[in-house]
Amino acid sequence: MMNVKWKARHGALLAAACMMVLMTAGCPINPPQTLSVVDLAVGSPNGIILDKDIAPGPYDTAKVLLYFDVLQGDNQQDPEVAITSEEIELVYPADLVLTESDLYVADMVTDRVLIWRDYRGLEAKGGSALEPDVILAADIENPTQIIVEDNRLFVLSDGDPGGVAIYADAAAIAADVPPDTFVEFGEALAMEYEDDILYVAGFAFTVGKVSEEQAVIVYPSVADLLEPDLKGLLADEIVVLSGPSWADLDDSGPVIPQGLRVVDNELFVSTAVNFLFTFSPADALVDEQVPDAIISETNGALLSPKAMEAVGNRLFVGNSGLSSIKATEEKSNSIGMVAFDDATNVVTGQAPDVLFDTSGAQISAVMDLASEENILFVAASNASPVLFTKLFPFSSFYTVGDVHIYLDADDLLFGWQADIVLPAMKDFTVPTAIDVNAQFTGN
Questions:
Q1: How much helix, strand and coil, in percent to the nearest 5, is found in the chain?
Q2: Per-residue pLDDT at 58
Q3: Using CB atoms within 10 A of its CB, is residue 155 exposed (0-12), middle (13-18) or buried (19+)?
Q4: Per-residue b or e along 107-125, where b marks 16 or more CB atoms closer than 10 Å to that residue's CB
Q5: Which of 222, 356, 384, 398 is most solvent-facing, going by the fewest CB within 10 Å?
């Protein structure tokens, strides 16, 4: 674990100067040379995809941008690679993943997963040569999240029915092939994968256990799910968190689990209606298990929380910024992200230890989070992660957002501004998805 301590962080005069520069050309940084080389991928959508009659403008180009060794640049750095909808079919990169060598992108509008092998080699190609090496479309509908772990590719499909497509050998995919298995779920909103266990959240149905109920379903063995006869995972082995798992808070309305994260064998579930639940041990959950802790909205701190990311044992939780229940009603909120220290020991009713708001941190909503060691990457926005596209043809503003990079995320001060801010309207409008890769060492 890196421990980057910037003396400038504790110098008020230098901090103030940096903040002044951030409002103009950006505050250059000189990160310590001990930092790993970190690559950053940013997805940005076509902003007017719902109205074909709108004249072309500066917001109608979807992009996937690659920043190599992003920590060595400043706020005005340019991406090394720009894959745009002017060169390939790309509309809405809802999620993306950087592995040690490859780039995966889920386009939820064109119903495809795009794969580029050797993403670092794309810098030398350019232009039409940026076509993906593989396009997956078979059995994929409205993909909203992807995970690549243990050489397995998981694609969350919000189709009819929704569920998770699983490919057993991600690195070997060379053509459009169907998944090795498809786990039907219902209306799937989020997934998590850890130690051969698959967690899926949303409105679920599992024959004999759940019927159109908001739930988190836990599949304890992906290896068994991938068995050709599908008999390796019995129905009674599948764990369902529902009913008592929401502490009866769903009696007065839907809870809607929409975010999942496992940290040190603790499962965190964020919901569309201001609650954060924790369950442990994550690898031995039981049906309708009651939560270890329930954290609710405190002074606006949790308003439709969704994205989560752990840096050390500090858990960051991002507010999505728009109600998932009523997409036309934007919630009034000045807090875009919170953090809980000693996350696996949080207690019911605990207030967050750090807040990031619109004034100090300049974060009003969060679309995605990523991290490498003690470095946090925040895709910020002024609207909801998925539902914001519904606002485009009918509003007088465009959704915009920045990418905020914190070099010492496990020791951030209250409301501290990011060390690097990649600004909206320079290379992208709003970052719908981000991911990072620190497999390369040293410059």
A1: 15, 35, 50
A2: 56
A3: buried
A4: bbbbbbbbbbbebbebeee
A5: 398
